[in-house]
Amino acid sequence: MTDTARAIAEGLRRGDRASIARCISIAEDEPELFSRIIKGLYRPGSMPRVIGLTGPPGCGKSTLISLIVPKLVEQGHKVGVVAVDASSPFSGGSFLGNRIRMEEALSSKHVFMRSIATRGAKGGLSVSIINAIITLASAGFDMIVVESVGSGQADTDIANISSTVLLVLSPGLGDEVQAMKAGIMEIADIFVINKAELEGSDRAAGAVRSYLSTISGGQNKDIALTSCTSRRGIDELVRLIGDHESKVNAKEFAERAFRSEVSRIAKELSSRRVDALIDGHAAAIGQMAESMDPYAAAARLLQGDIEGGRSRRPKR
Amino acid sequence: MFMASGKSRGSSERPIRVLLAKPAIDGHDRGVYVLARAFRDAGMEVIYPGLLPTPEQIVDIAIDEDVDVIAISLLNGSHMTIFKKVMELLRARHAGDVAVIGGGIIPPRDRPRLERMGVTGNYGPGTPLETIITHVRERAAEVRRRRRVA
Amino acid sequence: MAAPRVGSTAVGGERQAPASSRLKYWRSKVARLSKAVDSRNEAYDSWEKRVLIPWQKGLASAGRLVYTSADSAHDGGADMPGMYPFTRGIYPNMYAGKPWTMRMFSGFGIPEDTNSRLKYLLKHGETGLSIAFDEPTLYGVDCDSERAEGEIGKCGVNVTTLKDMEVIFDGIPLDKVSTSMTINAPAIILFAMYIAVAQKRGINQSRLAGTLQADILKEYIAQKEWFYPPKAHLRMIRDMMLYSVNNMPKWNFISVSGYHIREAGSTAAQELAFTLADGFHYVDMGIAAGLKVDDFAPRISFFFDSSMDMFEEIAKFRAARRIWATVMRELYGAKDERSLKLRFHAQTSGYTLTWQQPLNNIARTALEALYAVLGGAQSLHTNSYDEALALPTEAAAKVALRTQQVIAEETGIKDVADPMGGSYYLEYLTNRIELEAYRYFEKLDELGGILKAVEDGYPQREIADASYQRQRRIEAGEAVMVGVNKYQEEDEAPINILKISRKAELAQKRRLADVKRSRDEAEVSRALDRLREAMRSETANLVPHVIDAVKAYATIGEIVKVGRDVYGEWKEPRII
After folding, report:
1. Whether residue A141 sits in one domain with residue A10
2. Is the Cβ of A94 closer than 8 Å to some Cβ of chain B?
3. CATH number for the domain including B59?
4. C457 within some domain
5. Of A95, A100, A229, the CB nearest to C229
6. pLDDT in tens, A248-305
7. Which one, B80, C3, C464, C526, has least CB within 10 Å?
8. Closest residue of B to A280, CA-based?
9. ipTM of the complex
């Protein structure tokens, strides 16, 4: 192991924030180095619990997290927070603004927060989220709160790696209906009607309840009404999360989340490999246009069999 | 547009991460929002912690988010005090490898002193966004080179 | 006077008219105005075809090139100044009767500096004082706090305790001057201090005249200076409103401000719409608190930006008067003419100033000042040319004041009321901006009213979008800023700028230490406890309790902290 890697591994062991932070970046830049760093730190079989929050933009997820996390810390957890924002499909850039409403509440040495962009993870889980979770787990964090972007496939994927899924809704925006359409209702464990101080929160809770009565297992799911302005319902929500966590089958969760992570990482690594192959053989691939069809070319590329096996082994 | 912005997975580096902060007790945030969008549209990941972060918070966030660049906007004349504090804290926390860029209402006579502290850019109102973006890219590239060697 | 009826909804926007009938009202306005604004002009179409296009060798123009009488019709009432709906001005003789007030913002350094500046102004005939406070004061931060370091006295005068206010107004006849204070979030504290200074000198509060720039909604929308969640601040505005209506006949409890909205990058129409919507919210609050509209509406005044687009700005001021008068009469049933007249202070735009070739800013400010006068402003502040670089020097501030004097004395502009009225284009633009404002009122009520929209970040988002679009157009060279993206120069000679020493900081800290040594700590905590109790009750009026606290020499930071304990803090909604 290089000096850098050793220093960072040592930092993770001590819980040094700069090392944790740098390690998450390394996971993206140099996966092999990352793998070496966490070996020996990551304890197989002791997955951290993951609380996934999803729900439409503007429903108050960030504020809710800022109120829940200090309570989890009080319970003795070391809590990681991973807040996800969408990357622009055009520029690849993103605005990571979840700290605006979290900053004050999360300044504790038992909390580490990282903002993450989806980075073109089309309709799926960004591998960056998994990198952050693995790093935090390796640094001894036992509970990770993930705030998702609040739409589409990425949210369903977050459910796969979560031990408890919270669907956050707020009254008055027709959220209930949208959420039902999106099929997120089935995967949520706890339904949170946030901004309960607003008119229509009882109606929203009623709509959720009547929908749950139509799906199997729906009666067992909890509904919480919370108000971040008055802090009403926060303790109750934390209790519900604890209850649900205590009912989670640890082995089953670990296997499910692990499968999901492995699959996502494998896809990421192979996609990088393909990109590197294509970059490394741009000219050769171009020449194949005269002699074969695109399928045959792709097959040879993947076999590393370009121009009679003269292909270089990619560095990445 | 997709490719032109330099974003093709695998073959390009991950986006530059910038912490955009407005630490003085001053709420005029038109400029930072314009910059936030410009940086995002230039393919960067912009971390914005809201109004009035303290120098301590700025440094904490810069470390936790592992940013390449901290871009600080100051309009109310407190730049010398605040930049000094940020630079000192970065050094004290062994995070001196982050690039710090300034902007806002900064009188020309203060610019050399800021440069000596390591704060570059120091752009005034009306600076073309392109100029600022190019500068951020240059500083971020330096930072990444340095980190790789380290 | 009716006993104030105050409930939890009183500040949350209980409506005079139910939401549905309000929406219907806005929609009827939109429908009527869009007929006037969007209808085809056949005379133009035929002129374009037969004259313009052949002249341009077959090319059509991107936009309308000329306006005619068919574009400028309005059915909104009398077309004369001093008559409803006051489009052409609130007084029949306008500046021929009384020129606008040249109200220059002052306040810097330590209270002694500001005191001597105010005395100088009074000696030279000014009666309207306008005081700027520094950022620590505006954020309720005591001068000895670490947070205040480097900011004391920089953008205005520093006030930490009543002692500072006593020094600022030392030797100034509070019963003879009118004082405007730009103070926003801590408005109730500075208001209480002003009253306390007067009381300690034996001047009855009923003789105090002045204006508080206490509009907190525009803070959440634009300038972003607040302590608590919106409802808590609104409750304080309600209390100041009730207190001044009951005790201080010459006190204007609120100046509703569009200036900061515009400076945050909004369009002219957004500035107008959000400001008036804020104004209507304060009217709603007064009514919900049990007041009759004509008992308090005459005390509401406005503050607008004057920016670079000549006709748009003049049209904005005219539309503002027309909308306010119309809505106050039709929707709120105001009968007192003073409730219908929109009085406004204007300031030239800061964000149109450039640090490149700063002397060009004198030209910009002169033009903007001219538009405000053509638009019928009651008072005007002109910016100094060096403000894109630092706080103004005395020399630069003098040029700014002289600019107003040149306009007033050399141009003949005072002789005729609304001299631009009747211009087809201006009348058309006035209609168009009015229409855009009504469209926003409709949208805001669809979102649940201005307060809800502000809490959710809607106006903030609209403004950030507009601001980014503008910046993009500048970058692309579509919008020109001379010296910035056209006619640039290399190697500009630097100009002299004001440097504020750290002396102010030391002096203020010393004074605060003295105050803390000599005050009765038990009395301070008793006063703060009583204030805390009052804050917990929805119906109590906080003003007398704040007066007690400042008289005990509680600091601004201590008083704000009591509010934070009761109400909590507020973080802005994300808008990207």
Report:
1. no
2. yes
3. 3.40.50.280
4. no
5. A229
6. 999 999 999 999 999 999 999 998 889 888 988 888 898 888 999 999 999 998 887 7
7. C3
8. B11
9. 0.90
